[in-house]
Write a structure and sequence with these properties.
110 residues, 2 domains, two-stranded antiparallel ribbon, 3 helices, binds zinc ion
Length: 110
């Protein structure tokens, strides 16, 4: 019977070479110390913990979404400022390149 096997003879579900230290109560698989996590006083494997935390998550979805929107807006503002600054610099500095353009036009017209 596989269920009667002592825990020290069990191997981790993810690491076949490692000894299991605990059994996940949610899925019943054995895991090594690295694969098992403590969550609110209970021992859970990484995948069960992820499933559990994802099931709780939807409540916090809105703030996360707004955070992402804000980040996108900030990114846009920074990009806009960058190009605005670049445009302003192009207007201020190259007065001689503008003259060069006029010179070029004049030479082409001739
Ligand atoms: Zn599990
Ligand atoms: Zn493991």
């Amino acid at each position: 019977m596989p269920g009667s096997t002592p825990i020290h003879l069990q191997r981790c579900f993810h690491h076949s070479l490692r000894e299991a230290v605990a059994r996940c109560p949610a899925c019943g698989r054995f895991y090594c110390r690295e694969c098992i996590n403590e969550h609110q006083g209970r021992l859970l494997c990484a995948s069960c913990l992820r499933r559990l935390t994802q099931a709780v998550k939807p409540k916090r979805r809105w703030p996360a979404l707004w955070g992402r929107v804000a980040a996108a807006l900030i990114g846009l503002a920074v990009t806009w400022l960058f190009f605005y600054g670049l445009g302003a610099l192009l207007i201020i500095i190259p007065s001689d390149s503008h003259e060069m353009q006029e010179h070029l036009f004049n030479t082409l017209e001739r």
